[in-house]
Amino acid sequence: MIPRFLTCAGGVLVFLLGSQPVLAQADASTGVEPRWYVGAEAGKQIRTYSIDRQGFGQFTSSLGAQGAYAVSPRLLVQVGVQYGRGNKPNEELQGSGSFAHYPQTEQITRSWTVPVQLRWSLAKDPHRFRLESIAGIGLCFFRQRETGTNTATATKFVKTNSGTNGYLDAGIGGRLRLNPQFDLTADLLLNVNMARPNNSYFPIAPGFGSGLSLQYKFR
Predict the structure, then answer these.
(1) Largest CB tally within 10 Å, which of 2, 12, 93, 191?
(2) Mean pLDDT across the chain, nearest whole number?
(3) Residue among 203, 185, 67 at smallest CA distance from 129
(4) Alpha-carbon distance 98 to 75, whole Å?
């Protein structure tokens, strides 16, 4: 899974490096200087997490920080880091035989996600409010806790697992210019787990997320 993630990351890097001369020429012709952005964000997601190709869905809430660089008036490259926790444990059904460890719960106790995004403005000219198309990749490091009762022996157990998953992200965002220094952004994103768990209802293991961030701009 990690080599596949690195291949995608390398493709994004090649695209950015190859586009630099064209974008630099566009900036020179318009007289627009590149700008840097830093910001804070809050979000809520549902992701499919995979451990040993076994997947489970979990709602998480997250807080994070981000930095971005305006490569051109319409293209923004953004990198962030997000810390998240599962909202509540997932409850499994009672079982017997090979399912004798039920009832059982699963919960993401903590996660660290590093998303890298390309944000393309759908408006050719600057506006106070504009829509942006978003495409990106993300690497998530997480810890999962399982709790349950073995119905055959009536004993309880707690198990901790760790995993690393790569995701593809795509969606749309809205950017509102509050003043020359501050922007407010709101994003809606679909995510796909690149590990493709064996037990996922869909082969692409889809998820969904939303986020709100406040960004400060400077040259």
Answers:
(1) 191
(2) 81
(3) 185
(4) 53
- The residue whose two tokens read 């679909």 is 190
Cα 163 off chain centre by: 15
Residue type, 183: D
Is the pLDDT at 94 greater than 70, yes or no? Answer: no
**What residue ranges define each of the domains in the chain, with the CATH number in brackets?**
2-218 (2.40.160.20)
Under DSSP, is residue 191 helix (H, G, I), strand (E, B) or coil?
strand
159 token code pair: 């198990």
H or E element at residue 28: helix 2-30
Alpha-carbon distances, residue 121 vs 29, 60, 128, 173 (angstroms): 19, 28, 12, 9
Residue 96 confidence (pLDDT) above 70 = no
What are the C-alpha distances in Å from 178 to residues 14, 120, 121, 215? 34, 19, 17, 10
Amino acid occupying residue 140: C
Name residue, tokens 């950017």.
175
- And the tokens for 58? 């979990």
Rg (CA), the chain: 21
pLDDT digits (tens, 9 = 90+) for 17-62: 444 444 444 444 444 555 899 999 999 999 888 887 777 788 999 9
3-state secondary structure of 98: helix
Instruction: Give 154-177 pLDDT, tens digit per residue.
Output: 778 788 889 999 999 999 999 999
